[in-house]
Amino acid sequence: MAREGGLIRWQWQGYDRNHRDRLNLVLHMLAVPAFIAGVLAAVTSLVHGQWLAAGVSVVVAVAAFAVQGVGHKREAEAPIPFDGPADFIGRVLIEQFITFPRFVLSGGWLNNLISADSNSRNRHG
């Protein structure tokens, strides 16, 4: 599927809407760095011929990604479904290495966390 302005721009435009649930935000803050570390450790381990370490690192990355999937199920607005394997890989890598770090550094993560807290208080108290 063609994404107007490219994948990075397209993903950024809708990112805020798909990351509003408090638990999902916290899970992403923990799991995205674990995913990045797992992928980088896997690549480094493979370069050095350390197959077991590479395997363990891949398991860490997959588990971190699965945790994010649990968080996404809590969102009121679900992400757009993947359009095949290439779309899946591209979107996952862009989100993990570019879009989520950008979301945190831009203040979007904290703004949504604060909004989620106030929305929760309004519903429960």
TrEMBL record:
InterPro entries: Mpo1-like. Pfam families: Mpo1-like. Keywords: Membrane, Transmembrane, Transmembrane helix. It comes from the Bacteria. The chain crosses the membrane at residues 25-43, 49-67. This is DUF962 domain-containing protein. It comes from Tahibacter amnicola.
